[in-house]
Structures are given as C-alpha cells and as structure tokens.
Write a sequence for this structure.
C-alpha cells in the first residue's frame, strides 16, 4: 500500500473530495481521537492552555482539545495551521472553535516568540521528508530545520510539544529527531504497540531544562528511546570563544535562528579574515 506523501504534495492530495472522505470516516475519527488523547497525556497540562495544532487539517484533533474535561486540565484554546485549503474549508464547515491559518510548516512557524504553552501535531511531520520540487529550499533537511527552529521559537520556555508521525524507516526517523535536537529541543521518542502494524511513534519535545524536561515525562514508560544532546551551563566552562571568530559567529547565528530571525547561510568563508589589499 502506497503512502499518501508518495503520491502528491499535501495541498494537492487533500483536495475537497479527499478532505470530506477523511473527515467523515468513523475509523479516521477514532484513530485521531485516540492519538490526540495520547498526545495530551504526554503534554500533561495542569490547566487550560494555548496550544498550537500543526497540520490541524479539518479540526478533528482540535475538537478534542476544545472538549478536554476540566478534571484533566482542559478545555484548551487552540490555533491550527495547515497547508491544505480544502482541509481548512472543511473545518470551517464543521464550525470548529479554533482559529486557523493557511501555512506551510516547511517554511517555518509564523508566530511571535514564546506565544504558545504547548504544541501538538498528529500524522503530519513525515510530509516534510518528501521533496516536492527540485528547488534547493525544498530539500527535506532544510524544511525540517525551518519547521523545528520556528516551533522552538514560538513555544515558551519550559513548554512541551508532542508530534505523532509515521516515518518510512529508521533513517527517516533519525533525520526528524536529529533536526529537532539541532534546533535546541530535548527529544524523546515513545512507541506505542511496537513491532505491529498499529505501531505509532510520538516525538516528545521540551524547550529548556527543569520541570518540563522530557526525561521526566517518559521515565518509567516501556519502549522509550531518549536522545538529549543539550549541554549543561558548565559544559564549556573555561573555553573562551574569540569575538568575531568562526565559532563566535556560528553561535550568534544559531541564537538568531532560534528567535525566528532570517540569517545568511554559512559557507567556508564565514569568519575568515580578509587579506588587506593595497
């Protein structure tokens, strides 16, 4: 059985008829509800929060966020973004409660820094691993970097994000997780029903260290693979970077990218001194 992302880009695959079929399927509704509830349990939000729903589609997961019971910390307010105008049109027909934005997550997350308490994404981020054109900016690694850098910037410090996804293979899974870690997240991968056709992966992300650390979220759970490349405050103690040097420039560029700023690409000439010519 072919994967949807191998057929067409998401904005073309999810046309009007496909969006209606997807939304009205009782099987899809049950699966979406189950995965959204799982994502909420991993977010572990103690009170009503503002949540970003990435790849919100027709608002199936958003409806779960809006109806989350008070006893479990809900209901939540949500804002969704999706690349398919047909999916968003279907959501409007359903009169969902969240606000929605037509946007391509592979070009970044267009929100002010620190806007959201949490984020979820259900069955969406694997689409970033497909290049839909020969344009260099459409390369999967660049799209993943733009997405995770933007997501990191729009979440408040201590926030969590949970992304359920279907990687094609281990290499694709590692590419996605690696992009998240490079953006600054602490990343843990939780697998439900491993080694079965119903296997589902959840990428649990945290911004900064402390009570929101991912290792505390998934500790004690079976089938957990935690990757955390964040360095402690004293990891570079005693190492002083020369101002204006290549390492100093790269560090500053990385800080600007995490804030959602656009910076010039790095090349072999970055930080290289120019010869004085008379």
């Amino acid at each position: 059985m072919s994967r949807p992302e191998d057929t067409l880009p998401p904005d073309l695959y999810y046309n009007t008829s496909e969006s209606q079929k997807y939304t009205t399927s009782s099987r899809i509704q049950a699966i979406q509800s189950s995965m959204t509830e799982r994502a909420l349990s991993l977010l572990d939000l103690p009170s009503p929060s503002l949540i970003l729903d990435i790849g919100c589609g027709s608002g199936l997961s958003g409806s779960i966020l809006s109806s989350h019971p008070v006893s479990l910390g809900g209901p939540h307010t949500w804002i969704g973004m999706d690349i398919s105008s047909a999916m968003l049109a279907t959501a409007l027909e359903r009169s969902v409660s969240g606000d929605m934005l037509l946007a391509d997550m592979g070009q970044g997350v267009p929100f002010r820094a620190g806007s959201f308490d949490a984020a979820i994404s259900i069955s969406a981020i694997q689409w970033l691993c497909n290049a839909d054109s020969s344009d260099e900016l459409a390369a999967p690694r660049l799209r993943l970097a733009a997405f995770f850098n933007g997501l990191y910037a729009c979440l408040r410090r201590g926030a969590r994000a949970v992304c359920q996804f279907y990687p094609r293979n281990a290499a694709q899974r590692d590419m996605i997780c690696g992009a998240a870690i490079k953006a600054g997240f602490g990343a843990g991968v939780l697998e439900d029903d491993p080694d079965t056709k119903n296997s589902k992966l959840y990428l649990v992300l945290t911004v900064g260290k402390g009570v929101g650390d991912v290792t505390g979220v998934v500790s004690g759970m079976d089938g957990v693979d935690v990757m955390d490349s964040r360095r402690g405050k004293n990891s570079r103690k005693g190492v002083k970077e020369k101002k204006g040097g290549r390492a100093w420039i790269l560090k500053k560029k990385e800080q600007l990218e995490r804030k959602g700023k656009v910076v010039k690409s790095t090349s072999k000439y970055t930080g290289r001194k120019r010869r004085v010519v008379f």
Summary: The chain has nine helices and eight strands. The mean pLDDT is 85. The radius of gyration is 20 Å.
